[in-house]
Amino acid sequence: MTEVTKQQRNEPPWPKPLPYTANILHRLARGWKTWLGLLNEWDFRIPIGEINILGLPVFLINDPPLVRRILVDEVENFPKHPYTLWILEPLIGRAIFSVNGEEWQWQRRLIDQAFQVAKLNRVFPSMAGATEDFIKRLHEHKSQQPIDIDAEMTLVTADVIMRTILSRPLSEGESKKIFLAFSRYQRKAGRALVLRFLNLPKSLIQINLKNDAKIIRDWIHIAIKERLKKHAEGDETSSTSMDLLDCLIMANDPETKRKFSEKQLVDQICFLFLAGHETSASSLGVATWLLALYQDIQQKLREEVLLVSAGKPVQEQLEQVEIRKLNYCSAIFNETLRLYPPVSFFIRERIKTDTNFFVSGEKSKCPLGALLTLSPWVIQRHENHWEDPQVFKPERFLKTKESRWVKEAFLPFGIGPRKCPGAAFAQQEAVLVLAELVRNFKVSPAKGHIPNLTGRLTLRSSNGIKLLLQKV
């Protein structure tokens, strides 16, 4: 099938799975630059895949009932794999994302308490302010020159999370330094997992991660020390002006009476800042690229935005009540998350001795210590779960016959008790940014450019996402 025909069928380009190989070293070599290289074409057709990597049993779980069992029903029997902590520890310490058991439970209670105070309606002005500056930057760009929308989305989402956490915008000097450090960390972390599969010592490989992690942690630690000093001096913060950092400082676990220490605050803010902007930047960059590829979908979105805004001048930003009415925009974002999930792999460890997997009457032994991989990238493109799984079809996230799979085989934010607490935040931010973008511009592909999507800690394009902007 030609690329033109694929485009007509709304099948956007994607890194195709490679042919099956039984050679483990060959497979690891494919995963050196991108974790997507560890997959093969059969993974998108089977319910469970099994492989042994130098003595480590590895399962790829594609069956939705088994996914639910691992992430929801028996979550304590399948904790985060130690590799998750090991790869991220230099950067986020022992933050909520990578720990298990009681340590995770008390952290989640404090995080939930903070998020309950920092509700969506309270953070919307921060989102709106960052989005307004984003649109102004785009207007300053020369329309005949391609723009790297991936870089722009990285900046606006980092600005949003900076204003939400610290009540101030992100400066240009800060952004360059931090983005470069995190980009290096991503690249090194992707390779570190492969080296760990080869049984290289944890301590040796982590040394290579710590330098870039220190740049980010030191930057965040300075802001936290300044805020803690204000709290210690009795600088009262009103309940209406508290940002997320204030909420985390003041959060108190009702069960243990514990609060976050200074180091634990650094861990949590590092995680929230990087997760809050990195995953959103990934999905928003790809969503804009898809709108450029499919002009009919872009025009339909523009018509929805104009209808909801009811003739409001483009200089006046959309309000939160208007954002909530943009159902087609939400569907576009969700379909982007389905085809290009920012976090493409979750890994879990089997710690219960009597665990077996059953699929279609067949039993698969799951040894103690096995690494279980649950891949949104695979499950959300799996031919058993979706009609035309490679097709970009936002309508499937409106009320359709595919609603079952939307519920059971759609997990960009995870599911169960460890589902991302910032999912609603990300949805609101994405709809606002995309809506304001199409109100102001028509986006088109840059001639000859196709993003080179690479799976590391998150899914990003190694050559950016180049698009053309035309004011409307």
Distance between the termini: 35 Å
Number of helical runs?
17
Helix/sheet category: alpha+beta
Work out the helicity level: 40-55%
Strand order of the largest sheet: 1-2-7-4
CATH topology: Cytochrome p450
Oligomer description: single chain
Rg, rounded, reads: 22 Å
Please identify which CATH superfamily we are dealing with. Cytochrome P450
CATH class: Mainly Alpha
Question: Poorly predicted ranges (pLDDT <50, ≥5 residues)?
Answer: 1-5
Q: Roughly what is the average pLDDT, rounded to an integer?
A: 90
CATH architecture descriptor:
Orthogonal Bundle
User: How many beta-strand elements?
Assistant: 11
Instruction: Please state roughly what percent of the residues sit in beta strands, choosing from under 5%, 5-15%, 15-25%, 25-35%, 35-45% or over 45%.
Output: 5-15%
List keywords for this structure.
472 residues, Cytochrome p450, three-stranded antiparallel beta sheet, four-stranded mixed beta sheet, alpha+beta
